[in-house]
């Protein structure tokens, strides 16, 4: 393990979450030995257990991962990795199975997470499965209904703050770092990213290495996790190159995209992030250093898209591809189309868009879309349908 901030290095130790010397972000270095897809057994995240360091004598799993890679109907050679098919409806489950298993195997009884909603729902489910007490810190009034409902369903204690995710995140840091009383399930916990990197393993096993991978970015852990997965496979000679990582943010919450655009070494944080894509409504991504590393070293980039572009992309995904993704995930398609238009990516290359969460997470976003809902007299249903069929002929 190596600290991205001060360079401190230590042997792999599952008890360590942040740098013991400076509190910074730790990277877990993994060197695959004799790794081959043809030797693997099982499905989902734990199929790749040889690539996940640590002791997992007890695994807390609800069969996460093994999500569909769906070919686009519109763009040839483009695929959607539909993470909405995970047990709680987002990619977070991949990270939670590893982090919660680590918490159990290192003896923790209480876990906590700040969240824009999906981490909360996922953490709550895995904590229940493990029999752990869980505290969730949420930005009041800014969590999509489905995610809040899930957190209630799984029985978590919900602590609400007036303010953004970033304030919630800071208070979880206080519980973990200053008070040392909880195991943190946010993505600054590098063990979570060891689970999330299996997105890359699954893609590589199914279609080899893509040219570009397009990922919505919020707290900025996932883009790094996916890059890390591809990097490990490339270093082991399993794939021949690392795809370019293209991060997509919402215009109102775009510190990483702005930093890449302006060539800054450190992002300028957004004090009051705002976007319809509440999952990625984050102004101070804790993993910014990891995300910038993944983007720069893969020769990728980061872009921002407007709320209107996100809404249009969500509709297009649903109404032209038949895929229901939440707004933050649809940002990947909005960003992909922008990248095509700006000549940043070639639509005829092999490209994968990560659709991070299910449409059902955010019913309000769906209900705001234009709908054809007509109150009818059931006796005269043919008046409408016949009339329209005739008009179309
Ligand atoms: N897409 C969805 C649906 C998300 O829920 C998130 C993050 C992201 C993308 C961005 O991933 O943070 O690794 O860059 N949601 C977190 C949460 C912040 O609390 O659920 P990231």
From TrEMBL:
Protein family per UniProt: Belongs to the threonine synthase family.
Source species taxonomy: Archaea, Thermoproteota, Thermoprotei, Sulfolobales, Sulfolobaceae
Modification type N6-(pyridoxal phosphate)lysine: residues: 92
GO aspect biological process, one term: threonine biosynthetic process
Protein name, entry field: Threonine synthase
Cofactor: pyridoxal 5'-phosphate
Ranges for domain Tryptophan synthase beta chain-like PALP: 61-357
GO molecular function (one): threonine deaminase activity
EC number: 4.2.3.1
Organism: Acidianus hospitalis (strain W1)
Function summary: Catalyzes the gamma-elimination of phosphate from L-phosphohomoserine and the beta-addition of water to produce L-threonine.
């Amino acid at each position: 393990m190596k600290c991205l901030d001060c360079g401190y290095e230590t042997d792999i130790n599952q008890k360590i979450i942040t740098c013991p010397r400076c509190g910074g972000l730790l990277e877990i270095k993994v060197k695959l030995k004799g790794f081959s897809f043809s030797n693997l057994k099982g499905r989902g995240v734990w199929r790749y257990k040889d690539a996940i360091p640590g002791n997992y004598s007890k695994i807390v799993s609800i069969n996460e991962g093994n999500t569909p890679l769906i070919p686009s109907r519109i763009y040839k050679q483009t695929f959607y990795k539909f993470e909405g098919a995970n047990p709680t409806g987002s990619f977070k489950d991949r990270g939670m199975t590893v982090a919660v298993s680590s918490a159990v195997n290192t003896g923790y009884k209480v876990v906590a997470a700040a969240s824009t909603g999906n981490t909360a729902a996922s953490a709550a489910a895995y904590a229940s499965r493990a029999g752990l007490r869980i505290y969730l810190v949420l930005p009041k009034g800014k969590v999509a209904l489905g995610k809040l409902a899930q957190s209630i369903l799984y029985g978590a204690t919900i602590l609400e703050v007036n303010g953004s995710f970033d304030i919630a995140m800071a208070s979880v840091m206080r519980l973990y770092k200053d008070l040392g009383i909880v195991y943190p399930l946010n993505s600054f916990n590098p063990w979570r990213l060891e689970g999330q990197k299996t997105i890359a393993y699954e893609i590589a096993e199914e279609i080899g290495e893509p040219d570009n991978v397009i990922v919505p970015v919020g707290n900025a852990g996932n883009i790094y996790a996916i890059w890390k997965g591809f990097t490990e496979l490339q270093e082991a000679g399993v794939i021949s190159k690392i795809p370019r990582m293209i991060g997509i943010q919402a215009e109102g919450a775009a510190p990483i995209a702005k930093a890449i655009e302006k060539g800054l070494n450190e992002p300028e944080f957004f004090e009051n992030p705002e976007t319809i894509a509440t999952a990625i409504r984050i102004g101070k991504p804790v993993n910014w250093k990891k995300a910038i590393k993944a983007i720069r070293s893969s020769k990728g980039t980061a872009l921002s898209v407007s709320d209107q572009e996100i809404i249009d992309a969500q509709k297009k995904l649903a109404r032209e591809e038949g895929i229901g993704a939440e707004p933050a995930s649809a940002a990947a398609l909005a960003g992909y189309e922008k990248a095509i238009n700006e000549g940043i990516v070639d639509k005829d290359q092999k490209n994968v868009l990560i659709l991070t969460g299910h449409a059902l997470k955010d019913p309000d976003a769906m209900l705001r879309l234009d709908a054809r809902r007509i109150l009818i007299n059931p006796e005269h249903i043919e008046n409408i349908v016949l009339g329209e069929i005739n008009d179309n002929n």
